Amino acid sequence: MQHELVTLPDAASLATSAARFVAQRAAATISDHGRFTFAVSGGKTPWAMFADLVEMDLEWELVQIFQVDERIAPDDDPDRNLTHLLERLGQLPAELVAMPVTEPDPLAAAASYARLLPEQFDLVHLGLGPDGHTASLVPGDPVLEVEDRLVAVTEPYQGHRRMTLTYPALARAQETLWLVSGEDKREALGKLVAGDRSIPASRVEAGRSTILADPQAAGRLGQ
């Protein structure tokens, strides 16, 4: 998949540019077909993006937000992506479709969430780990080979099993927006841009792909 790489001067610019990108896509999509479906990953960079995004004038009642992945942990756990997402959204009337990770049967819960997914996501936000993972598609995990399900459950990774969209689900994205920051992501970002399928992130397919990165992550790629 071809990516458009845009390098921003610092973390604040990265967050603001990402928020504007999402807002522009949302406004155009709502104008075109009356709803904007947006899937969101976790991490510090997107929370900064949301801090700017929630201040923008959008028809939030027509925005439907899904989770790309989530740690299997109790409600209000600080490790949960949902905890931070709810903090950022506040009282906005967007429809948030949260992953049911507190259900007693994670596999059944994953199947239940899959039935809620749209036939197409207008935009999917993704991050990139130093090990080349995205969503919770982690190197060596059996979830990488799942082709018959849209949502799956991983093996333990950094202390938690996780629920994640699979490659077939991510392929429903009309467009992907990658946010990448930090020098520790530089090698993985180089592989992503090069299409090196040795990392999980490079196996994601979508209609279009934009990468917003800071100079520490982009390195020579941003020159």
Characteristics:
single chain, 223 residues, alpha/beta, Rossmann fold, 7-stranded parallel beta sheet, 10 strands
Give an overview in words:
It is a single chain. The longest helix is centred in the first third of the chain and has 23 residues, at 11-33. The chain contains seven helices and ten strands. It has a seven-stranded parallel sheet. A three-stranded antiparallel sheet has the order 4-8-7. It is α/β, with parallel strands linked by helices and 223 residues long. Helix 1 (11-33) packs across helix 2 (44-53). The two termini are 21 Å apart.
CATH architecture: 3-Layer(aba) Sandwich
Radius of gyration equals 16 Å
The pLDDT mean sits at: 94
Major sheet description:
7 strands, parallel
Q: Provide the β-strand percentage band.
A: 15-25%
Indicate how many domains the architecture comprises: 1
* Category from helices, strands and their pairing: alpha/beta
Taken from the alpha-carbon principal axes, the silhouette is globular
